[in-house]
UniProtKB/TrEMBL annotation:
Every DNA replication/recombination mediator RecO N-terminal domain range: 1-69
Gene assigned in the entry: recO
Lineage of producing organism: Bacteria, Pseudomonadati, Pseudomonadota, Alphaproteobacteria, Hyphomicrobiales
Classification via Pfam families: RecO_C, RecO_N
This protein's GO CC annotations: bacterial nucleoid
Protein name as annotated: DNA repair protein RecO
Family of this protein: Belongs to the RecO family.
PANTHER family: DNA REPAIR PROTEIN RECO
Recorded superkingdom: Bacteria
Function: Involved in DNA repair and RecF pathway recombination.
GO BP annotation list: DNA recombination; double-strand break repair
Record's keyword terms, sorted: DNA damage, DNA recombination, DNA repair
Length: 249
């Protein structure tokens, strides 16, 4: 068995004296592990950093075997990203999200979105928005997508500013006003009518993570006996801090 693909490094763990088991999210073969000979050595360390994109050749005698990877660098972005605390937390959290997907099951849209996010992930001004959108996409990919296109109560497609915590559907300002304290806020960057020209506040980012976090926890994590990671909390704090500082100044 042999295939060639591009993949994003999710994680690495030492195996034996000098080898490493490398976990990739590949474009066409999904989340896939393989053994890299010499992978724990200093020569391979810059390549095998989470967030890097590599060209991978995977070989095994049988498809169900762990197999071996031969890897070459394509985009080694980890060195620039990891100078920022939000990027360190964020890449760790992105890896935990991707691990919710079944192993060896292709998810090309998620791969493309992850690649796009990582290309600009060192920009703290946009990283928070992009990760909220990624969590939203993961909910859809796992079968728990939210309906943010029209109001669940009236069918209206404009002025959608709330989300029902029960149904995961959008609610308009007029229909939701009597129950506003029971509804989740739909941040501007998740509304189709918002182009981002007015910018987004730290509160908008918090509202976005509160929205996706509730549905991830209830529908995906808790049924698996899991909860939100410390990396997620650290990322949220790191991307909101500069915005709070700017407001204070």
């Amino acid at each position: 068995m042999e295939w060639t693909d591009e993949g994003i490094v999710l994680g690495v763990r030492r195996h034996g004296e000098s080898s490493a088991i490398v976990e990739l999210l590949t474009r066409s073969h999904g989340r896939h592990l393989g053994l890299v000979r010499g992978g724990s050595g200093s020569r391979m360390r810059p390549l095998l950093q989470p967030g890097n994109t590599v060209s991978a050749v995977w070989r095994a005698r049988l498809d169900e075997h762990l197999g071996y990877y031969a890897l070459e660098g394509v985009r080694l972005r980890a060195a620039t990203m990891f100078g920022s605390s939000h990027a360190v937390y964020g890449v760790t959290h992105l890896g935990s999200l991707v691990r919710l997907l079944p192993e060896r099951d292709p998810h090309e849209d998620i791969y493309e979105m992850l690649e796009s996010i990582l290309d600009d992930f060192d920009d703290v001004a946009t990283a928070g928005v992009q990760l909220v959108k990624f969590e939203l996409a993961m909910l859809t990919e796992l079968g728990f997508g939210l309906d943010l296109s029209s109001c669940a109560a009236s069918g209206a497609m404009n002025d959608l500013i709330y989300v029902s915590p029960k149904s995961g559907a959008a609610v308009s300002r007029q229909a939701g006003e009597p129950w506003r304290d029971r509804l989740l806020r739909l941040p501007p960057f998740l509304r189709e009518s918002d182009d981002g020209t007015n910018g987004w506040s730290g509160q908008d980012i918090e509202d976005g993570f509160r929205l996706t976090g509730l549905f991830l926890l209830r529908n995906v994590l808790e049924p698996r006996g899991q909860g939100h990671s410390d990396a997620r909390d650290g990322f949220i704090a790191a991307v909101i801090r500069p915005r709070a500082r700017a407001v204070a100044e």
